[in-house]
Amino acid sequence: MAHINLLPWREERREERQKQFYISLVAGFVFAGLVLYGVVFYADNLIQEQSQRNAFLQQEIAKVDKKIKEIKDLERQRDRLLARMQVIQELQQSRPKIVKVLDSLVRVVPEGVNLNQVTRTGNNLTFDGLAQSNARVSVFMTQVDNNDEYGESRLKVIKRTSGRDDAIRSFTVEVTESKPKDGGEGK
Asked: 26-44: per-residue pLDDT in tens?
């Protein structure tokens, strides 16, 4: 039988396979590098887009916060103006009230009662005066209670100025003014 030496052919084939293996290995690394670069590039683009969205949202949030602050300032101004308007309206309504109270005071003080002092604190009136008898003080309080300008009266002090039966009585009566009516008063 003839001997054929296949060793050089095998050697060439092995070198060819090793060369193809190295080329495939390098091509695999290049492909993997390209895929990795593509993934990193895509992720960076996503991160950059999200950063842009976040920056846009931050700008819009800052605008909305500014508007909210302006709205709160306007609400505070509105509340202050409403409070001022309320005070002005109350003053307008109560302006003629003191005149009516003093005018009605002339009508409710009976004969035999003299008022020395009338003190007004807020809506409370305090009458200090002298009366010829306890009955005169009672008549005065009844007339005050029956008048629309006053609330219920309260007797604080009544005392004799001397020990005689016909002695003059010193008294203090407190009363609250009635609320002004909204029927167009002060206009």
From this structure: 999 999 999 999 999 999 9
